[in-house]
């Protein structure tokens, strides 16, 4: 089989993680082109990775290059346009999280993938953690019983990445759409992908202007951006099978230190996602389950390598995708509903998709 030919659209911070995944598979794939609207960044990227075909317009790149697949790693506002263009050009796509700015965009992307018969994978990279894979096996094996509640959070004390991340026009929102998306996805994925039916949420803009402190992730993009997203969001979501989820996410919050929690509770056991997994059973016993028990590597550092390897495997071999477009669409429904509830002060009904 010939090498899979790929391109990167958006050569900022996270694109290097995608490149790391492709470079690890250099015997079966190669990145032959890259695109960024920032010429200087694009040129430096080309030099760093030896990519010669560089473009500032993805439409031009898609028209001129023979590509099998692309990584869409732009800021959120460009995900939909770049993804739909790439799918229409006959490419398979892995698009970073959040899938889009909102559900309407996400649906357009999913429709383009279906119409063109191409794969659209969403960058839910935490699904590839050893602890998450072990928890999925544990839950799918019935050992946790019926799952009915998840408590998830992703809280930073002072961690707005700056740049476009704080500007609604480019990001679509603050910590809920940027960070909450990771843990909300994990909870729904582990709970067996139920359909959300209603959400109640609240957002705050109390501390966002706070400067200083250690930044966890910093946008590689500088420029004139506004700071108008929420700095803290919390929400409660109900699902069609009775499952409920509580989420909290912050860029800025006066807590001791940055922290993340994914706890999922069933009739036989509750599970706290960590390495190793912690299990609390109904019979009063507790357990610690190492990911190795399930033959899953526990390393956090290589989750992007695993994610990209899965994408390339799906593209080359038609393997069933672990993070398909539809999961991204449903997540956007949950996020839209929390933001709408925060705006209106009321619970928002979500129309389940087929
Ligand atoms: N999976 C994760 O854990 C994770 C972590 C960080 C960021 N992300 C996601 O990755 C995406 C990028 O984040 P980042 O931190 O790399 O941002 P960044 O600011 O470092 O890079 C974004 C790049 O996109 C480019 N761009 C914007 N519009 C474009 C267009 N139309 N065509 C070509 N290039 C365009 C910008 O010029 C910039 O270089 C975001 O969606 C973010 O949410 C995911």
Give an overview of the whole structure.
- The chain has 354 residues and is of the alpha/beta class.
- The chain is 33% helix and 24% strand.
- The chain contains ten helices and 15 strands.
- It has helices at 15-23, 39-49, 58-64, 79-88, 103-116, 130-140, 168-171, 175-190, 303-317, 325-344; strands spanning 4-9, 29-35, 53-55, 69-72, 92-96, 120-123, 147-155, 196-204, 232-239, 244-250, 259-266, 269-272, 277-281, 286-289, 348-349.
- The strands form two sheets. The chain has a nine-stranded mixed β-sheet with strand order 14-13-12-11-7-10-9-8-15, covered by helices on one side. The protein has a six-stranded parallel β-sheet with strand order 3-2-1-4-5-6, with helices on both faces.
- Helix 8 packs across helix 10 (325-344).
- The longest helix has 20 residues, at 325-344.
- The radius of gyration is 20 Å and the shape is globular.
- The mean pLDDT is 94.
- It binds nicotinamide-adenine-dinucleotide (NAD).
